[in-house]
Amino acid sequence: MAVTKSFSSARFLRSASLVVGAALASAAVAQGGAAPQPAPNSAANLKLPENPQLFGTTMPSVVKARVLVNNEVITQTDVDQRLALIAISNGGEIPANEIDALRQQVLANLIDETLQIQAAKAEEIEISDADIDRTVQRVAGNVKQTPQEMADFLKARGSSIRSIRRQIMGETAWRRLQSKKIESGVNVGEEEVKSIIDKLNASKGSTEYRVGEIFLSSTTANEQTAQQNAARIFQALQQGGSFVGYARQYSEASTAAVGGDLGWVRPEQLPQELASAIVTMQPGQLTPPIKVPGGYSIIAVQDSRKILTPDPRDAVLSLKQVSISLPKGATRTQAEPILARFSTSVENIGGCGGAEKLASDFGGEVVSSDQVKMRDLPPALQQMMANMQVGQATRPFGSIEEGVRTLVLCGRDVSDPTAPTYEQVMNQVTEERVNMRARRYLRDLRRDAIIEFR
């Protein structure tokens, strides 16, 4: 697949901290224990802008008012409130020409969610109100709100806390059901794991990629519909849609709950159709839908690195961030003198010890953050900090409306990369097999379900 399009890599990484729906993904999966989870963004508490500005030098709708899934009702309100969550993840608005198709997909997701909850109940898997309450508390904390504040926020935008709780229940039920019914039956041999580690050591210096996937299953019966849905999702992503948000809502892979994150993979670990695509891509690009066995995949490449080879971006940083606010309503012309003075002061900050004085001089604040992975910073800041010495500060960045800031480098630790452990390889191979079996399991649940549209 030769054609690739750009997407926001920062959006791909950090949507979970900006959007309630995506924040739910990481929180809800934590309930299940064994799910693959992307590493927490170590720069999250700095609240960095995605694209810092530097200073100084149509599918026909068949959705019905009520749908019965094995005699359990899904109402139009359920669909509308879940659709509102998607709107929140897209900045509060869905293009009018996409609403019907999205509503159709939301209904399909709610049907799957209902089947998953029903299957878990049949296996006597219980998700208590206390389980859900704990996850709601974490989700609200991720967006700096109390549960009640989050409930009010959702209600004001056409959704509800009930919709979030239902989604938590569905994701938790599905994860626990996979653990009980699928993971326990997946076996990975010791020799197989050792062989993978040997191949990894032999491939030292070759490239691996941080990859996200949105997978839509297809059969001969729904091939055209699946292809059209994948094309619509790709178009929405090209227009700035959140990859994490769309993966969570639409992907039928088990990685949907973590925003489609496959982690670091080598091309040979992927189906040939996907491997051929990613080796031609640069970080920040995504593919149009690719036909793979069983469906269609949209692949996003967020980053790349050389296997077992030192990379400056693997450094772990100790930082101080100095943030200042500009007068409310100030124009660029009015702000320029302040920006000029701040830029000069930043150049002469005198190391991390001067951060507090700099903040005091400009009425700003200081946030200290240790164990920040350079790869978690926006690309523009990575480029600046790669060549900085301890004690230096970045050029000021931000915006006139939201404030300007600088990062002071207080420490840098660079570790020599090593091969993954036996346990890490075992977990990855196991997850791949669980993912494949989970798709088949959900397909069987759909096949056996009695679904009535009224």
Total number of distinct structural domains? 2
Mean pLDDT: 83
Q: Would you state the CATH class of the largest domain?
A: Alpha Beta
Task: Write down the overall geometry.
Answer: globular
Strand content: 15-25%
- Sketch the topology as an H/E string, one letter per element: EHHEEEHHHHHHEHHEHEEEEHHEHEEHE
Count up the helices: 15
Number of strands: 14
Main β sheet profile: 6 strands, antiparallel
If you consult CATH, what is the topology of the largest domain?
Chitinase A, domain 3
* Unreliable residue stretches: 1-38, 58-64
> Which radius of gyration do the C-alpha atoms yield?
23 Å
Assembly annotation: single chain
User: What fraction, in percent, of the residue positions are helical?
Assistant: 40-55%
Q: Any overview of this molecule?
A:
The structure is a single chain. The protein is α+β, with helices and mostly antiparallel strands and 454 residues long. It has 2 domains: 5-309 and 420-453, Chitinase A, domain 3; 312-413, Chitinase A, domain 3 (Roll). The protein contains 15 helices and 14 strands. The chain has helices spanning 9-18, 20-30, 76-89, 99-122, 129-142, 147-156, 161-181, 190-202, 223-238, 243-250, 272-278, 332-347, 355-361, 379-385, 422-448, and strands spanning 5-6, 53-54, 66-69, 72-75, 207-217, 261-265, 285-286, 290-292, 295-306, 316-324, 365-373, 397-399, 403-413, 451-453. Strands 1, 5, 6, 7, 8 and 9 form a 6-stranded antiparallel β-sheet that branches. The longest helix is centred in the C-terminal third of the chain and has 27 residues, at 422-448. It starts with a strand and ends with a strand.
